[in-house]
Each structure stands twice: as C-alpha cells, then as structure tokens.
Design brief:
Elements lengths: L12 H47 L16 H10 L5 H9 L4 E4 L5 E4 L2 H10 L4 E2 L3 H9 L8 H21 L5 H17 L4 E3 H18 L8 H24 L9 H28 L1 H18 L2 H30 L3 H14 L9 H5 L2 H13 L5 E6 L3 E7 L5 E5 L4 E5 H4 L3 H4 L15 H6 L18 H18 L19 E3 L3 E3 L4 E3 L2
Parallel strand pairs: 2-8
Antiparallel strand pairs: 1-2, 3-5, 4-11, 5-8, 6-7, 9-10
Helix pairs in contact: 5-9, 6-11, 7-8, 7-19, 8-12, 9-10, 10-11, 10-12, 11-12, 12-15, 12-19
C-alpha cells in the first residue's frame, strides 16, 4: 500500500491565489472606476464653478448673508415649530419674525434657496425674468388633486392651457354682469333662510360665499350650475375639496419630499373631487355626441373646446379642476375677509353704503358694469383686503437655468445674488403686503382709504409691491370676472341688509390676531359671522 503523502492535507496555495485573483481584480476595477468618476466629478465641478464665478462677476453678484436663525442642524427646530403652529391656525403669523428679518433670506433646508419679501426680486421672478423660472416640485405637490392644467404646467403645455382659458373668459366678459345676478339672488335667499332658522339670528356668510362662487364658476364656465347636483353631493364635494386642498398645501411645503405625505384619506378625497369634475365633463361631452358640436357649443363652449382639443375625458376633467380652484376659493376668500373687516369697522361700512346709495339709486332695476366701475371706495376696500389677505399668500419657483436675483447680496443687501439651476425661491405676499417700508406704520391696519389718492399703487408698484391677481405672463385671466363677481355680491348684500353688523360677543381683534385656515388659499378660521338686521 502506498503511504499517504505528507502534503496530502496541506492547502493548495496556488489554488487559493487563483481563487482570490478575480475578487482582487474586481476590487481594483471598482476602486479605479470610483477614482475616475470622482476625478471627473471634481473636474466638472471646478469647471462649473469657473462658469458660475464668471457669471457672478459679470453681474456683480455677492452672497446673501442673511439666513433663517435656528439652533438645530438643518433648522429642524424651526420646521418643528412651524408644524406645531398649524393646529393653532396662526402659521403665517408664526413665520413673521423669521421672514421679516430681511427682504431676501438664504435657506439651506431641503436644498439651496431663498425667501423673499423684496418687491424688486418678486417682480423679476414673476415678470422681468419669467423665462428663468419654473414650477419645479410644486407640480408634484398639486398633481394628485388637480392633474394637468395651468397651475401644474410650464412651457408650451401651460401656454396652450392658458389660451383655452382666455377664450372662455372672453365669452364670460361678453355676457356681462347680468349673468351673475341670478347667483347673487340665490346667495341672498340662502342667507335669509339661515337667518330665519338661526336661534340667535347669527349668519356665517363664509360658506355662502363659497357656494355663490362655486355656482357662478360652474354655470358660466362649465355650462351647468352646481345646484343641478343633489345637496348631499354638493356637501360631499365641499368637505373633500377643503381637505384635499389642505393636504396639497402641506405637500407643497414638503417640496421634493411631498411623496412622503399622501394619506389614504387624501387619495379618497381627490377621487371624490375628480368624480365631481368628471360629472360636468361627461355631461357636456355626451351632449355633444348626442346633439352635435354646434348645439353643444351653445351651452358648454369651454368644455367642448377642451374636448375637441384633447379628445381625452381625463384631460378635460383636470382642466375643470384648475378652473374650480381659481374661480371658487380665491373670490370666496376675498368676499369673506372683506365683510369680516367691514362689520368690524362700522364707519367704513357706513361710507360704503352711502357710496352705493349715491351711485345706484333705489329705482335702478339692474346693477350694471358701469355702476360697479363708479364705486371707487368699494374698490379701495377690495384692494385693502387683497393686500392683507392675498389670494395666494405664499408661492415658489425654481431656477431653470443660471440667473440672478436683482437684490439681496452683500453686507447691505443691495447687490445681485447668483441663482444656480435648481435653486428654489419662495416669496410671501402676506408679509410683503404688510411691510411698513411700503405701506407705512399702520401697515397692519385695515384702512381702505390708503388707496384713494392713487399714489400708493404708484409708490409700491402693481405686480411688485402689490400683487393682487398675480403678475407677469401668469397674471390671472379671471381678474375682471372676479372683481365684478365680488363687487356684485357686496353691493347686493348691503342693499338688502343695510343694518348688517357684527354680532355681540364676536371678537373684534387687531389684524393678524384672528385665526386663519391656510390651504392653497387663505380663509378665516372663524368664518364671517354677522347679524343681518
């Protein structure tokens, strides 16, 4: 028998070396690739830095030195306090000491960006440098509720949607204020019914204003009044739309992290709102298919325009939702805040009633556009409401290419500031419109008289220091429609109820002390409670 080799149990070193070589090769290759990529990234970053430095030098840019004061890393303490303020319904007032420390503030939370209350910078974003900015992550925040439309689109798609809307608002303008009168009459009937059934006679005007603007929007833009639906369906829409708007506003503040907050209740609410819009879209489209395009255009011109343009029922539905949020919420909030302050300032209310009585005599059978245009003090009241409670109190854009903010850099904040592609810029009209440097020491007082001479608008600049219906290429197409709609409601209300007043026991606090509901728009958390007689 052959004796076993003394090397029989000795490991095969050659085999082991051969087995490790692929692993070593893989590690060497990975390390080499990493170093190549790192080197390329550093080279590319230096190249980009040289381009940015040259661009900044050319435009005289300096760094923005003011930042949001915070104690914890990434300003987590400020974010926490902000969300703690939400249940108290005082979020915008909570933000005041942070946002007003300087007109331009640098922010490094969730990316690089800036917060603005500088009218020159805001005008640059909205108008003068409009092409340098896009919606960015704002689209992600709003898309589950609204889908495709003017508030979620940029570029060619936005221009196309806007052109379709412009045609419809031109039709509404041709119909005149007479088309709004039946809705104003229904509004008056609704508050009369509530007054009759109210134990103490107190009426909350705010939900009625929302019903009024929803009725006008659906009738004049959709071709069918909202009242064609059962009351239960209308109530369901209101509850779900308000909730979906609240969640959408929170998602907007989360920016690129909006995906982390999409609760099941929100998704269900979005479906309810979308089904509501689909009802109007399908009704018009089905009518078109049954009776022909010409007959359908007589009643549903806007929806038929959308249908012929897209041939997509979901796309039509989305466009209607964008019109809904523009036509219902903004004007209803404007009306509610206006009456909120008029009944708290009887001298203003008396003056407005006197103006209405002088312009529109009791024997006038129908209010006209000419009557509304003569009510100069009413327009002052509307301007003052839009100043203190802007329709979109906060907004945001993102730089689509390297550009500059005209001011905010350097020790005195007067030098231009470099914006890199992707940088975010948010601005607060709520705080801009309350700046004492623009509106004087009484900037936080509801005083419509400040608008009478016409000098204030020249001083602050329309679309810069006073942004009533947005500005620049995205200026609100429905501005004239909204002003006529709001003016008619105020006039009709004061004519029928000249003794309207603040109920006893209802707080009359300084501006800013009231509680507010901040969703996409800004409404009163207290409603608008009045006694009609």
């Amino acid at each position: 028998m052959e004796s076993p080799s003394v090397y029989a149990n000795t490991p095969d070193l050659t085999a082991r070396a051969d087995g490790l070589s692929p692993l070593l090769a893989s590690r060497v290759l990975t390390t080499t690739l990493f170093l190549i990529l790192l080197t390329y990234w550093q080279w590319n970053r230096r190249k980009q830095q040289k381009i940015e430095d040259a661009f900044a030098e050319k435009h005289g840019c300096q760094p923005c030195l003011t930042t949001v004061p915070h104690k914890w890393p990434f300003a987590i303490d400020v974010l926490k306090k902000q969300y703690d303020a939400l249940p108290k319904r005082r979020l915008l007032e909570f933000q005041t000491p942070y946002i007003t420390i300087a007109p331009t503030i640098r922010v490094t939370v969730l990316g690089n960006g800036f917060i603005l209350t500088d009218p020159v910078n805001i005008e640059a974003i909205l108008d003068k440098n409009f092409e340098d900015f896009g919606l960015g992550c704002r689209r992600k925040g709003l898309f589950p509720l609204l889908g495709e439309g003017i508030f979620t689109q940029d570029g060619h798609a936005w221009k196309h949607s806007r052109a379709l809307l412009r045609r419809q608002f031109a039709r509404v303008h041709e119909r005149g204020i007479a088309a709004l009168i039946p809705h104003a009459d229904e509004f008056l009937s609704a508050i009369a019914r509530e007054a009759e059934t109210s134990v103490d006679g107190v009426v909350n005007l705010q939900p009625h204003f929302f019903e009024y603007t929803l009725g006008t929007t659906t009738d004049l833009l959709f071709g069918e009044p909202h009242t064609c639906l059962p009351k239960a369906d209308r109530d369901e829409l209101r509850v779900n739309f308000d909730y979906a708007s609240l969640v959408s506003a929170i998602r907007l503040r989360l920016a690129d992290l909006s995906w982390i907050y999409t609760p099941l209740k929100f998704r269900k609410a979005c479906r309810v709102v979308q089904n509501w819009a689909s009802f109007f879209a399908n009704r018009a489209i089905d009518y078109c298919e049954e009776h022909g395009e010409e007959a359908a255009r007589e009643k549903y011109a806007f929806i038929i325009d959308l249908w012929l343009d897209t041939r997509d029922r979901a796309a039509v539905r989305d466009q209607l939702l964008h019109v809904l949020i523009a036509g219902r919420d903004t004007t209803a909030c404007l009306l509610s805040w206006t009456l909120f302050h008029l009944v708290r300032n009887p001298h203003l209310l008396d003056r407005l009633k006197a103006e209405i009585a002088q312009v529109i005599h009791p024997d006038v059978s129908e209010i006209t556009r000419q009557h509304i245009q003569q009510l100069s003090f009413l327009r002052c009241c509307i301007n003052e409401t839009l100043r203190l409670y802007p329709q979109l109190p906060v907004n945001v854009r993102f730089a689509t290419r390297m550009t500059v903010l005209p001011r905010g850099g350097g020790p005195d904040g007067t030098a231009p500031v470099l914006l890199r592609k992707g940088d975010g810029v948010g601005w607060s009209l709520y705080h801009l419109h309350r700046r004492e440097s623009l509106y004087g020491p009484d900037a936080r007082v509801y005083r419509p008289e400040r608008w009478e001479s016409g000098q204030l608008i020249k001083k602050v600049g329309l679309g810069a220091g006073f942004v009533d219906f947005h500005s620049g290429p995205r200026v609100c197409l429905g501005k004239d429609y909204a002003l006529q709609e709001a003016s008619l409601a105020v006039v009709s209300l004061l004519q029928k109820y000249p003794n309207i007043r603040l109920p006893p026991g209802v707080p009359n606090e300084p501006v800013g002390a009231e509680t507010q509901n901040l969703t996409i728009t800004l409404s009163s958390a207290e409603g608008c409670k009045v006694l009609l007689s």
